[in-house]
Hints:
The structure is a homodimer. Chain A is 54% helix and 13% strand. Chain A has helices at 3-8, 11-22, 28-39, 45-57, 77-83; strands at residues 61-66, 69-74. Chain A has a two-stranded antiparallel ribbon. The first copy, chain A, is globular. The A-B interface holds A 2, 5-6, 8-9, 11, 14, 17-18, 21-22, 74, 76, 79-80, 82-83, 85-87, 89, 91 and B 2, 5-6, 8-9, 11, 14, 17-18, 21-22, 74, 76, 79-80, 82-83, 85-87, 89, 91.
Amino acid sequence: MSDIFEALSAPARRAILDELTDRDGQTLFELCTRLTMKHNLALTRQAISQHLDVLEAVGLIRTSREGRYKYHFIDTKPLHQIVSRWIDSPKK
Amino acid sequence: MSDIFEALSAPARRAILDELTDRDGQTLFELCTRLTMKHNLALTRQAISQHLDVLEAVGLIRTSREGRYKYHFIDTKPLHQIVSRWIDSPKK
DNA sequence: TTGACATGCAAGTCGTCACTTGCCTATCAT
DNA sequence: ATGATAGGCAAGTGACGACTTGCATGTCAA
Lengths: 92, 92
């Protein structure tokens, strides 16, 4: 649950989430080109692939494989209970 | 604004915010002892001091100096617009 | 089946950051 | 003034992580 903070610490991973928010269900190559274009990110395909692995490991991304394509979908569920940890603290 | 994610990536800094949520306005030494006790964190005074500097730099902590004491207060304002970046995306 | 396309695996490099160590400054009590 | 307490500055170490390079696997079209 606290791995989500580590996942969100990398600027490249936040850019990936931005991209998937703008257009969900992209493949790896789509993300590579669009991140280079719109976000001024000059990253290798493998770099982005590793970032996607991290995001998927913490549940921020779901994937579906179809043939040789692998689509990536953002999942914002883990984001909801994150900040509420310090904001609405209903403690004693 | 995106430095907040880097600030929140360190577990020690999240523990500090937890401690200040539990009891606001602590001094450096108070935080040291209580972090060691309740959070099983064995950190040096300087380590915690550096974490406090980071948290203050991104606006998650405000401080007030009185004599030789420096009190630390949590400020949750920067936390509000963080997650909304991907959750309620009112895009095109 | 051959080649192009989309992705995966593994090892290596490099920089950053968390943490420590050592010393210094400032405030208060006696 | 002196000692004790609360905090600050600066340099050094070590490890983790972001990123790259190189090669391998699997899918599709011709």
